[in-house]
Recover the amino acids of this structure.
């Protein structure tokens, strides 16, 4: 049986989340608690509070704290071409279909600091589709979005990502898409030009356009089943018939209410396609 | 009796952490567990991003218990060995289902033994036994301390004879070891602990 301390931690976290939702309209109550508790505890330390409970009055009376709280709870950790086999499958299996459309709309939800969406844009550039593509990259974390929009990364990291880029079927050199200086690498304007970054909260915001591909990786793992269902419903609504859905490699569509609406393209890589007809009841 | 007194009640769940040399140590323990072992066994091992599947496969060949990768939102069930997937943190929720997170590495590790053990300590409290095996860094020591603080029982591999003693040494230095044992004794301890730990160290 869980001890008293863990009970206290659970109460503190519940109250903190209630305050955040009611005071600021950001509802994290549908997030998986174990990792959220870690992040809340980290945030408390960072803001000089001895407990998560001590964060609550600060949250209630100090509006300027909100961006930092959102950043602390949503920890945007990402890489370029993470899971190269997924990007390879997009290149080999999705691109031939996407190429037949006059215009391509893509929604990348949970873009963090942009590494993943730039990977996708580079891939589309190499197969000659970027010029007719519009990518909407969204996240709840404004600090991360600002970084993503800047598109400046430590040059050392680009070296590190090169191996994955090549495994993903990249045909040039990854650095070719950046201008280098002072140890930093800035993504080329030509790549960035097709991406719009925007604040969007998967918990509370609705669908904003019809897209041919939704990429949302390593975001659903943070949500409980109910919230996962809501978000997968959003993606289903946003996708055109025959549109594609790409989830993180440890995220599973199988248990969701939306599962019926999709058929696997490659189940192990979590690549799915929305059924063309009316889904079976 | 204090909350940290380990000498009460049966164990309902096991968490095992290991790093360098861990596969051999696991091979000395897990195949000894009988079919129908009455608790889940969760293994968090530091691995390269690509060889998680290999470890599960290697253990599966020799174990009587099913060995599977832990999946998000699924419950930890008795009689099953769960392996943390590579490149994610594994956590235990209060309702004893698994969670994954892609948060930053902790002590340069993902999965982090500390992250799993701290959450498991909260979820299972006194009914958790945590086992820390060979490894070349200090991950797991803070997790073991959390298990102990929540009333769980901590077993550390004897650093003397471990492939890499740093990990068990760090836990012992933190005072987070109730028992210190060689791997070939640990399966026997686990089996006894499922029946209760009233008798202290089972000899
Ligand atoms: C681990 S990162 C994943 C980044 C990237 N997709 C990848 O896989 O490398 C998770 C991201 O989800 C974002 N996120 C968390 N909750 C969200 C929400 N309710 N709405 C939109 N984005 C959210 C976080 O801010 C963070 O940037």
């Amino acid at each position: 049986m869980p001890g008293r301390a863990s009970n206290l931690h659970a109460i503190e976290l519940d109250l903190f989340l209630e305050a955040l939702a009611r005071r600021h309209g950001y509802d994290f109550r549908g997030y998986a608690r174990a990792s959220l508790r870690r992040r809340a505890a980290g945030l408390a330390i960072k803001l000089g509070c001895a407990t998560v409970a001590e964060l609550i009055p600060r949250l209630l009376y100090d509006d300027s704290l909100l961006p930092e709280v959102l950043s602390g709870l949503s920890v945007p950790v990402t890489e370029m071409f993470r899971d190269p086999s997924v990007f390879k499958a997009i290149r080999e299996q999705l691109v031939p279909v996407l190429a037949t459309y006059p215009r391509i709309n893509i929604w990348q939800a949970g873009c963090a600091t942009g590494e993943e969406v730039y990977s996708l844009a580079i891939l589309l550039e190499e197969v000659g589709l970027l010029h007719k593509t519009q990518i909407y990259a969204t996240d709840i974390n404004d600090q991360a979005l600002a970084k993503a929009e800047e598109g400046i990364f430590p040059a050392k990291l680009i070296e590190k990502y090169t191996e994955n880029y090549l495994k993903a079927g990249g045909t040039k050199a990854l650095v070719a898409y950046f201008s280098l200086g002072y140890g930093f690498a800035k993504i080329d304007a030509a790549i960035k030009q097709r991406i719009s970054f925007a604040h969007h909260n998967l918990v509370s915001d609705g669908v904003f356009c019809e897209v041919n591909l939704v990429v949302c990786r390593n975001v659903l793992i943070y949500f409980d089943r109910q919230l996962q269902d809501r978000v997968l419903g959003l993606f289903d609504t946003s996708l055109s018939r025959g549109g594609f859905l790409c989830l993180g490699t440890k995220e599973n569509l199988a248990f969701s209410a939306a599962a019926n609406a999709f058929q696997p393209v490659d189940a192990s890589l979590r690549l799915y396609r929305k059924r063309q007809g009316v889904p079976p009841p | 009796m204090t909350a940290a007194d380990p000498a009460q009640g049966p164990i309902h769940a096991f968490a095992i952490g290991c790093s360098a040399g861990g596969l051999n140590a696991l091979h000395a323990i897990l195949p000894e567990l009988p079919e129908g072992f009455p608790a889940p066994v969760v293994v968090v091992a530091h691995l390269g991003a690509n060889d998680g599947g290999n470890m599960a496969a290697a253990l599966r060949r020799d174990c009587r218990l099913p060995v599977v990768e832990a999946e998000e939102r699924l419950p930890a069930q008795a009689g099953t060995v769960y392996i943390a997937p590579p490149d994610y943190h594994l956590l235990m929720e209060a309702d004893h289902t698994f969670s994954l997170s892609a948060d930053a590495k902790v002590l340069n590790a993902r999965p982090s033994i500390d992250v799993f053990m701290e959450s498991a300590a909260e979820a299972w409290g006194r009914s958790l036994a945590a086992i820390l095996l060979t490894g070349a860094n200090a991950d797991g020591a803070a997790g073991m301390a959390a298990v102990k603080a929540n009333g769980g029982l901590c077993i550390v591999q004897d650093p003397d004879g471990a492939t890499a003693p740093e990990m068990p040494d760090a836990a012992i230095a933190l005072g987070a070891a109730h028992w210190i044992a060689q791997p070939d004794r640990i399966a026997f301890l686990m089996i006894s602990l499922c029946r209760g730990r009233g008798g202290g160290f089972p000899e």
Q: What stands out?
A: Chain A has a mean pLDDT of 94.
